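Listing S7. Sequence submitted for prediction.
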Amino acid sequence: MGSRRRVLVLHTGGTLGMTGSPLEPGTFGAQLFEAVPELERLAQIEVQIVCNLDSSDLGPAHWAELAIRIASSWGKWDGCVVVHGTDTMAFTAGALAFALSGLDRPVILTGAQRPLSALRTDARRNLADAVELATLDLPEVGICFDGLLLRGCRAIKSNTRSYRAFSSPGVEPLALLGTDIEIKGHVRRAVGPFRCDAVFDPRIDVIYLTPGLQESWIAARLQQPELQGVILVAFGAGTLPDSGLVSEIGAAVARGVEVVVVTQWGGQTDLSLYRNSRALRDAGVVPGGQMRISAAVPKLMHALAAYPNRETRRAYLMQDVAGERA
């Protein structure tokens, strides 16, 4: 018994623990070991119920609570599993990757497409896989789903009907779970001591450019009095229409609003490629590298709350903190 690794399981809700039709939150802790008895063979497990919510109801306050719970018991466990609904799991994974720096053990998010109580559920495998991964030398925040371990800050939900609900385009899985667990060589290692900085400023907006989008509407959004940051989801490698929009963005940047540009397809931003992208560069925006929206949102929120000095904040936004940019 004493040789088993120790794993903290934090439950936040989601399909995995739901019951009934339509699905509603169930009693997760009581059914866990009965439904997945092999968990007790994999590790010594402590279950904590953080909340029991649909993941669409989770946000920055819950991200902070999760990070604090993980950090407060840092010396007591060898790994952590966060059970989470799939719809916003990638946002939470990104948030934890930025709030918890210097990780030397795994933080694994998982969930399910069908409840633990359902026939043909994927919940049992995902839970067992996640707990086993949490006992290994994998010092990253990851998403474990359908036999894959993905870097959390690069994962996206890409399917609502298949058991392979998540993917990480452009980045190979950190591990493959088949008859054996194959850990890949690009797992990141901590370069400094563990630190928890569980702060997020939610006063940001996400502007997704589309052809014909009215400039006056975007201008009004950029002039919101409490606005602190914007994720601008641009065309191509970072272009926007040749209009007065660039001057509105430049004015927002001059007022202190941080504007981060990401691409609609998740590829690398290049603000030197075209005239319409160089205009954004000259306006003072921050290129987002290869960040997905689900990583850019928590990173910008975290940067605004954690780095009041603008020069330091912009340097942080340009840094590849957890593998989110490159």
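Caption to Listing S7: primary sequence and predicted structure tokens for the chain studied. DSSP finds ten helices and 18 strands in the chain. Residues 293-306 form the longest helix (14 residues).
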